[in-house]
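User: Design a sequence. Structure:
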């Protein structure tokens, strides 16, 4: 048994720190994964203010060279960035992966569809936000290329039609079960909401799936997850 798994069983104190920004679409991916795995009590949150550009300062770049959120910090000082990598770590912790696949086939399909959700939807909307809108403001957005941003917006709209077609024939993005691939599309649609890029009305299967996803406690409670619990009376 790996030490990660035995620590999982033995510890009740927060052993991990998530550096993130509560309302961010990428941080949402890890927050949803944490709740789906019921690991909330194992983490504490450190807020990094995107609007003040704290993620581009040397202190944060030492934790994540890419200057993006979220970052998972382990109690041995290891930093893991990239939502997919963090989700894979969390999913493996209890030796019972539910988000990244159990069989080789599941693992392959989930990874493919999650990557596709990044390329065709979430990352495309992020580029649109940073290049074709004011983004995080002039202090953070030091290079913008609006034409590239609008192309990525159009790519994301096409991506919405792609995921609509997928969800017409299966209940979840990577097949029959909820997975990391669903979480990545959820992140995309959270970002779409923030930049006011509505899912086209004709994408009925995508709308219906998103309505179902928004009923999941992990999705509903993601922003308040890092707020201190109210003292019990
Ligand atoms: N590939 C990275 C991942 O998967 O973790 C992308 C992470 C990312 O872009 N995070 C956003 C960020 O740091 C956070 S948020 O916009 O969703 O809140 N953006 C700031 C920037 O300047 O790029």
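Assistant: Done.
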């Amino acid at each position: 048994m790996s030490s990660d798994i035995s620590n999982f069983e033995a510890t009740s104190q927060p052993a991990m720190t998530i550096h993130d920004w509560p309302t961010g679409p990428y941080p949402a991916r890890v927050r949803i994964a944490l709740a789906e795995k019921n690991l909330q009590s194992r983490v504490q949150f450190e807020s990094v203010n995107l609007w003040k550009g704290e993620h581009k300062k040397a202190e944060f770049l030492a934790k994540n060279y890419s200057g993006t959120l979220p970052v998972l910090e382990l109690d041995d000082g290891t930093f893991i960035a990239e939502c997919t990598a963090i989700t894979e770590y969390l999913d493996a912790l209890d030796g019972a992966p539910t988000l990244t696949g159990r069989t080789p086939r599941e693992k392959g399909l989930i990874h493919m569809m999650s990557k596709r959700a990044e390329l065709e939807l979430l990352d495309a909307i992020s580029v649109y936000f940073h290049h074709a809108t004011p983004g995080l403001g002039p202090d953070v957005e030091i290079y913008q290329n609006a034409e590239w941003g609008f192309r990525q917006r159009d790519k994301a709209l096409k991506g919405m039609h792609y995921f609509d077609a997928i969800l017409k024939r299966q209940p979840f993005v990577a097949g029959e079960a909820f997975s990391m691939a669903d979480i990545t599309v959820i992140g995309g649609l959270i970002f779409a909401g923030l930049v006011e890029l509505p899912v086209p009305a004709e994408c009925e299967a995508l709308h219906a799936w998103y309505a179902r996803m928004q009923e999941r406690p992990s999705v509903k409670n993601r922003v308040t997850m890092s707020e201190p619990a109210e003292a019990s009376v």
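The chain has two domains: 3-98+220-225, 104-216. Residues 104-132 form the longest helix (29 residues).
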